[in-house]
Write a structure and sequence with these properties.
Elements (H helix, E strand, L loop, with lengths): L1 H4 L1 H9 L5 H13 L17 H10 L6 H13 L19 H11 L4 H12 L8 H9 L23 H12 L10 H14 L13 E2 L2 E2 L4 H7 L2
Antiparallel strand pairs: 1-2
Helix pairs in contact: 4-5, 4-6, 6-7, 6-9, 9-10
C-alpha cells in the first residue's frame, strides 16, 4: 500500500504544525504515477478510469501543472454524456449518475470552460429522488411506513429513477451552490432548499447520517462517519 511506504512521514505530517512540503511532493508524485496513460485514475487497479477517483485526483493536483492533470481534465470533458451528465466509469451509464455533481465541482475547481458545467447543472436540476413523484409520495405516506421521512423533501439519487440518498444529495447541493447567484435559473434556489430540508429530515435521531434514512421499522439507525462528513460539507 502507498501509505504503508510513507507511514512515518504520514504520521509526522498529521502531528506536526508546519506544512510538510516534501510529503506533499511525494504524495503528488505517487498520484501522478498511478494515473492511466489515457487519462484519469481507476477506482482500483483496473484499466478503466473512474469519474469519482479522477475527480479526487484532479483536486489533489489542482495547482500542480503536470501531464497527468491535463489528461485527466481531457478525460472528464470527453466522457460527459450528451445529456450533460457523467457516467460512473468511462463508457458506462449513458443516462448519468451521481458523479455528475462531483464532476461539476472538480471542473470549477480547475477552472474549466463553463459550457460543460452548464449542461451538467441542467441535468442535475432535471433529476430528483423518486419519492418526489406524486405516486411515490402517496406510497410512503400510506402503504410503506417502514421508513419514516417526509417525501415532500427530496434530493438526488445515486442513479436516475431511484430514491434520494444522503451523499448524492450533499454533493449536488454543493455543485448548485457553487454556481454564481446572479446567473442561476430561478428554480435552483427551490432545489437547494428542498435538498437541505431533506438532509435535516433524514438525519439520525442521535445525530449524524446513515446512508439514506434515520429511522427504519421504528428503529433508529446508526450514523456513518463518511456519510456524516459529506453531509456536513
Amino acid at each position: 500500500m502507498f501509505f504503508d511506504r510513507f507511514s512515518v512521514k504520514k504520521n509526522s505530517f498529521l502531528l506536526m504544525g508546519p506544512f510538510n512540503t516534501q510529503l506533499l511532493r511525494d504524495l503528488r508524485s505517487e498520484i501522478e504515477r498511478r494515473s492511466l496513460s489515457s487519462g484519469g485514475w481507476p477506482s482500483g487497479n483496473g484499466p478503466t478510469a473512474g469519474v469519482e477517483s479522477t475527480c479526487y485526483g484532479l483536486m489533489a493536483l489542482h495547482d500542480h501543472h503536470a501531464p497527468a492533470r491535463e489528461k485527466a481534465i481531457d478525460l472528464l470533458l470527453r466522457t460527459q454524456n450528451r445529456n450533460g451528465s457523467w457516467p460512473a466509469f468511462e463508457g458506462d451509464d449513458q443516462e448519468g449518475c451521481w458523479v455528475t455533481a462531483l464532476a461539476v465541482m472538480t471542473l470549477r475547481f480547475v477552472q474549466s470552460p463553463t459550457s460543460p458545467i452548464e449542461k451538467a447543472l441542467h441535468w442535475l436540476l432535471n433529476n430528483k429522488g423518486r419519492e418526489g413523484h406524486w405516486l411515490w409520495k402517496w406510497k410512503f405516506r400510506t402503504v410503506d411506513r417502514r421508513v419514516q421521512f417526509d417525501p415532500d423533501k427530496y434530493g438526488w439519487s445515486w442513479f436516475p429513477g431511484t430514491v434520494s440518498w444522503v451523499i448524492p444529495t450533499a454533493f449536488s447541493l454543493i455543485a448548485l451552490k457553487q454556481s454564481p447567484p446572479c446567473c442561476r435559473p430561478a428554480h435552483v434556489a427551490t432545489r437547494i432548499q428542498l435538498g437541505t430540508e431533506m438532509l435535516f429530515d433524514r438525519a439520525c435521531p442521535g445525530g449524524g447520517w446513515n446512508a439514506g434514512n434515520g429511522i427504519v421499522n421504528d428503529a433508529a439507525l446508526t450514523p456513518h462517519i463518511d456519510t456524516t462528513a459529506v453531509a456536513l460539507l
